[in-house]
Amino acid sequence: MSVRLLAVPALVALGFVPLAAQRPLNLDFGRSAVADSTMPWGWSLGWSAFAAGPAARYALDAATRLEGRRSLRIVAADTAAEAPARALAIQIPAGFARGRELVLTGWIKTEGLNGRAVIQLEEWLDRQVGAADSAAVRGVGGSTDWTRHELRIRIPRQSAAHSVYLAVAVQGRGTAWFGPMTLALDGRPITAIPSAIPPLTTAERAALARRSTPLVTVIPSPEADGPDLRRIGDLIGSARVVGLGESTHGTREFFQLKHRILQHLVKRRGFSVFALEANQLAIERTNRYVAGGAGTAADAMRAMFAVWNTEEMRALVEWVREHNRSNPGAPVRFVGYDMQDQRLPADTLLAFVRRVDPGFLARVESATSEYRAQPSWATPQIPDSVRARWRDQAARLSADVAARRAGWLARARSPADSLAAEWAAQSANLFRQAALLNASLNSPDRDSLMAANLDWALRTLVPGQRAVVWAHDVHVSHGGDRQRSFNAGAQMGAHVKRTFGHDYRAFSLLTFRGEYTGTRSLSDFTMITARATDGPEGSMEALLHAQARPPGAIGFVVDLRSDSGDPRDHWLWTARPIRHIGYAAYDYGFDLSAVFPLEFDGILFVDRSEASRPLR
């Protein structure tokens, strides 16, 4: 997942199913964020993380407050009147509010304000705002005492809204304090999103127990076997592609369990491809290492996103290298399928063209130079028109390269030459994809592109081989349902499912309680250890936590195979909140819901977990 892009709060359809668990709102700013004790729990920077110009400073303030323990203080340094607002926001699924009235009450105090301090309450649809209300205090270098503001919206019962958005912001220069806020639903104050998922009946709890096999360990072993692994093998059957998800990118036990499963699938079931949510060209460096290349595992792993640079992943990489050394006739190959990189694809294409087709070099340089020079593939601070121009240039170049591919292949004198030509064409495609995603900043676009790259790798690099695919739960999930699936059904797994049908299996990896590794925020990429919120009421995590486990078991392998038309399984097809934490740490993390049998063939559940251990 972007690993960063998916965390960008945008007016994008993220596939929210109406959430019915109790999500605390922290409108009185009494609780601190898991990643920063000076920030309020549950509030995020939103688009402020990408705003140009001097940044604002945010802090909980115990000295200046109206009532309660603290207020929220925002100090903005922008001097231009048109400078973007600096905001903290809460984005919550809108299902609880459809057909109802929301009233948000809050307080504002200002000092030396040149601009305005704002409170917002909005209904968010796909790329547009529905019902909205806002209140502002304006100033020209002056100060104001605490003033009360009341915002009111009604969300239509048939609204296509995916979120309710609450924000406090300062635009211009100066300081504003925001006091305790209250949210009322049809006149009734609420401090958490109301819960509406019914508890399981005795018969339903028994049905869940019948579907569950105790998970004994996550630790990889030389034998790579056991009753729990055999159960996983039964769920996989003869499938060619297996998606192993994860509800956080930084859970130690998820890394270890995937390592254990990979060993089992390689040794017992003939799998030979390990596909990772990593940039496609960059991961070739890791593959060279596991194939016996020089260097160290740590060096080879720098090609991966930082979240994968852990002790647990190093153990997996070293195991694959040793397996390949001991089994030269049946090696395991690493492949990547992400496209969050514009530089290496441009450099790869340029190097190939200089060597094979120098007359085409000026065309490639002209089309790649400006975007390639950017410090990152994602440039939300650059005007839309510029990003659109880069996208169009990259698309035309990719089409031109595709037209020349046949000629390059015809002139190839060896399999290595042919593979280099294929990589050159794919490099142009990867450059196009990065530019496209940079122009849209739309998460479903990335999923479709990752699926296309995975398909290219399986057809071109490892035809006919069986593959394990490592990614976030959202990416590997089956999807396909515009109303009930993540990303309105457009996730990567939906594309893979259409290609492979029953030859694709997907698993969700869940934990009820523990810690995980993530970045401090969307703008501060310092890796930290964060506490995971316990699985809330109605979540699958909470149901499995409450289920009795035999001595020695640390969790369960859950069989989700079910007929949606079977009335006995209605409880299983109920949308339930699912943890969704990617690159950055999140205070809550249960803002998405899943209809589990629709998205996954099974669940791998670890009751308590630890944070992954980054390499030092």
Describe the structure.
With 616 residues, this protein is an alpha+beta fold. The chain has 3 domains: 23-190, Jelly Rolls, CATH 2.60.120.260; 202-339 and 457-609, EreA/ChaN-like  fold (3-Layer(aba) Sandwich); 347-376 and 379-440, Up-down Bundle (de novo design (two linked rop proteins)). 31% of the residues lie in helices and 27% in strands. Strands 9, 10, 11, 12, 13, 14, 15, 16 and 19 form a 9-stranded mixed sheet that branches. The two termini are 23 Å apart. Mean pLDDT is 92; it is low at 1-21.
**Number of E-state strands:** 19
**Shape field:** globular
CATH architecture of the largest domain: 3-Layer(aba) Sandwich
What is the CATH top level name of the largest domain?
A: Alpha Beta
Structural class call reads alpha+beta
Q: Give the assembly state of these chains.
A: single chain
Radius of gyration: 25 Å
Which runs of at least 5 residues are low in confidence (pLDDT < 50)? 1-21
Number of helices: 15
End-to-end distance: 23 Å
CATH fold title of the largest domain = EreA/ChaN-like  fold
How big a fraction of the residues is strand?
25-35%
CATH superfamily of the largest domain: EreA-like (biosynthetic domain)
Q: State the share of residues found in helices, binned by percent.
A: 25-40%
User: Strand count, sense and closure of the main sheet?
Assistant: 9 strands, mixed
- The average pLDDT value, as a whole number, equals 92
Give the tally of structural domains: 3
Question: Care to give the gist of this entry?
Answer:
This protein is α+β, with helices and mostly antiparallel strands and 616 residues long. It contains 15 helices and 19 strands. It folds into 3 domains: 168 residues, Sandwich (Jelly Rolls), CATH 2.60.120.260; 291 residues, 3-Layer(aba) Sandwich (EreA/ChaN-like  fold); 92 residues, Up-down Bundle (de novo design (two linked rop proteins)).
